[in-house]
Amino acid sequence: MRYPCHLYVALFLLFAGCATDSEDSSFSGTLSLQNDRVAPVLNEILFDPLQDSGDNLPDQPDFVEIYNPGVDPVDLTGWSITDRPDPISGKVNRYYFAPAGGSNVLGPGQYAVIAPESNGIVSGSRLTNYYTYLQSSTEAKIFLVKNYKVFSLNNDGDSVRLLDQNGNVVDSANYTPNWHNPGNGSTKHLSIEKFNPLMESDSPISWTSSSDSQFGGTPGRVNSVYVPPTRDEEVFSLSPSPFSPNGDGHDDFLNIVINLPVGAYQLELTVYDSTGRPVRQLAGGLPVGPVIRITWNGNDDSGAPLPAGSYRITMNAAGYSGTRFSDTRSVTLAR
Question: Shortest CA distance to 119 belongs to which of 97, 96, 148?
Answer without folding.
Answer: 148
